[in-house]
Design brief:
alpha+beta, Gyrase A, domain 2, Elongation Factor Tu (Ef-tu), domain 3, five-stranded antiparallel beta sheet, 6 helices, 16 strands, 15% helix, globular
Length: 309
């Protein structure tokens, strides 16, 4: 089983699975205020934000790490496999707003830093999703993997990577799983309201901002006690894939949830974030793929769930 107390990620990882959306123009912040779950009007240059883009039914179509570059530009880092569709959908709602939504992935390079690659900075005071200028780019501290500090580096294309040993992308993605924060990727588009992936507990939803698509559903899930699913971190011996169904042994007829993120564990087996019915998590009988499939073991969540906001 995964031992998060001995977790050690060290080095610089390429992140080809991520891309960058640029929103630029004098109406950028106002436009994003009406589209995403996060309050970008309050976003300072020293901060980044986790945000979701939802359907009118409150289901997540995309998730981002967003940061401002000046008064009229916001960068949204997201999974490459949903980027084109997200740019197209957001662009449909621009109408007369003075903002342009574009795929800026070719203008930037992204890397994940952990361990010795950021130790000189990570030992100083910093906050999750705080930012700093670093090696010609911007460093964004992410939610840690266990106790391991991690950061996203965003720099202009062609900028040399920060110094450090090479870290395999698969290992980086394992750290992502252990952070408990699942990004939206193609297999789970339109599958979850933000709270089903614990986004309100990791700073991905602002309940005090103005309207956005799906806001009523998201707010009702939070304040009326209608939420029945949550995200959990699990370990299993069998390979797991995003979008794969999860069952509980007592019910072979229907799944209790889905795999939202998954990666091989360096010590053996596989780890995943699953979004499942809360009652199923309490049953201690989770199975992958079917009610008699490979067993899954719950691991501790690396952050507390917020009961109130």
């Amino acid at each position: 089983m995964t031992d998060t107390t001995s977790l050690r990620l060290n080095g610089v990882a390429p992140l080809p699975h991520l891309g960058v959306i640029r929103a630029q123009g004098e109406d950028t912040v106002r436009f994003l205020q009406g589209q995403l779950t996060q309050d970008f009007a309050l976003l300072e240059a020293s901060q980044a934000r986790l945000a979701a883009y939802c359907s009118p039914k409150g289901r997540m179509l995309a998730s981002f790490i967003g940061l401002r570059r000046g008064a009229d530009e916001v960068l949204l880092v997201c999974s490459q496999d949903i980027l084109a569709a997200t740019v197209k959908r957001l662009s449909l709602f621009v109408l007369r707003a003075k903002v342009r939504i574009s795929d800026a992935s070719a203008d930037f390079q992204l890397a994940g830093l952990a361990g010795d690659a950021i130790s000189s900075i990570a030992n100083n005071d910093h906050s999750t999703l705080g930012t700093a200028d670093f090696e010609g780019g911007i460093l964004v501290w992410l939610h840690p993997a266990g106790t391991q500090a991690r950061a996203l580096w965003i720099a202009p294309a062609g900028q040399p990577l920060p110094a450090g040993p090479a870290l395999d992308t698969a290992q980086w993605q394992w750290g992502e799983v252990l952070s408990g924060v699942a990004p939206i990727t193609a297999p789970i588009v339109d599958a979850f309201v933000p709270q089903m992936l614990n986004y309100e507990s990791v700073g991905g939803v602002n309940f005090r901002k103005g309207c956005y698509p799906g806001q009523e559903v998201v707010a009702r899930s939070q304040f009326r006690g209608t939420l029945k699913r949550r995200a959990f971190v699990v370990h299993g011996d069998a390979p797991m894939a995003v979008g794969q169904e999860v069952y509980v042994v007592t019910d072979a007829n229907q799944p209790c949830g889905l795999v939202a993120a998954a990666a091989p564990a360096p010590s053996g087996g596989h780890d995943a974030i699953i979004a499942i019915q809360i009652s199923a998590a309490e049953s201690n009988g989770l199975r992958l793929g079917s009610a008699d499939g490979p067993a899954l073991t719950l691991l501790p969540l690396p952050y507390p769930l917020l009961a109130e906001v």
